[in-house]
Amino acid sequence: VSLGVLGSGRGSNFAAILASIASGRLAASISVVISDREDAGILELAREAKIPTVVLRKGRFRTWLEPEIEEELAQSLRQFRVDLVVLAGFLRVLKGPFLAAYPGRVLNIHPSLLPAFKGKEAWKQALAAGAVETGCTVHWVDLEVDSGPILGQKKVPILHGDTPESLHARIQEAEHLLYSEVIQRVIERKLWQGIPS
Ligand code: GRF
């Protein structure tokens, strides 16, 4: 199974997935890493791992992509024969054209126990709400932000004295375990061939 990983940031989830593949825990390969930011750490990591990279054309918008750029994104994924798209810190909202090209084949990881704390900096939202635990969620991507069917979650305690940084770091450790586990389950059960719409 060929994965395409999309990210805008440092790429620690991508690195964890790569390590799972190397150790045989995840029966997949990463065919391409795509970013909307040419300075993203994830691209550097991909180059070090000799994985092809693509940088999306700069558009006019900050939080989403023009339909033409989404179409180019879909083309790149087809060109690299990607079966399953893995969003790992990709900071753009994907809309119709892309999801139509890859229906039910796009996964995302979010740093909260969805449906709680959707949107930005979910760990800060959890702290501000006085929650005693939070976590991370892997879900299918649909047209709403952070809302598609949930595939797996890991809980993380919120400890006395936690700062946004300490909590985010603990959530990321959980993410690094959860994402590969869920991708492996999706592949084993061939869930990407008939996903609930
Ligand atoms: C993760 O915390 C993930 O939950 C969120 O973006 C972050 C990506 O981090 N969607 P990294 O680039 O994988 O280190």
Task: Describe the protein in words.
Residues 5-183 form the Formyl transferase N-terminal domain. Keywords: Purine biosynthesis, Transferase. It catalyses: N(1)-(5-phospho-beta-D-ribosyl)glycinamide + (6R)-10-formyltetrahydrofolate = N(2)-formyl-N(1)-(5-phospho-beta-D-ribosyl)glycinamide + (6S)-5,6,7,8-tetrahydrofolate + H(+). The structure is a single chain. By secondary structure, the chain is α/β, with parallel strands linked by helices. It has 6 helices and 7 strands; from the N terminus they run βαβαβαβαβαββα. The protein has a single domain (2-193), classed as 3-Layer(aba) Sandwich (Rossmann fold). The chain has a 7-stranded mixed sheet with strand order 3-2-1-4-5-6-7, sandwiched between helices. It is globular. 39% of the residues are buried. The structure holds 5-O-phosphono-beta-D-ribofuranosylamine (GRF). 5-O-phosphono-beta-D-ribofuranosylamine (GRF) binds at residues 7, 9-13, 42, 88-89, 109-111, 172, 175. The site of 5-O-phosphono-beta-D-ribofuranosylamine has 14 residues, from α1, β5 and α6.
Question: What is the overall number of helices?
Answer: 6
Described by the principal axes of the CA atoms, the overall outline is: globular
Gyration radius (Cα, Å) is 16 Å
CATH topology, what is it called?
Rossmann fold
Can you identify the CATH superfamily? Formyl transferase, N-terminal domain
Tell me which ligands are bound.
5-O-phosphono-beta-D-ribofuranosylamine
- Portion of residues in helices? 25-40%
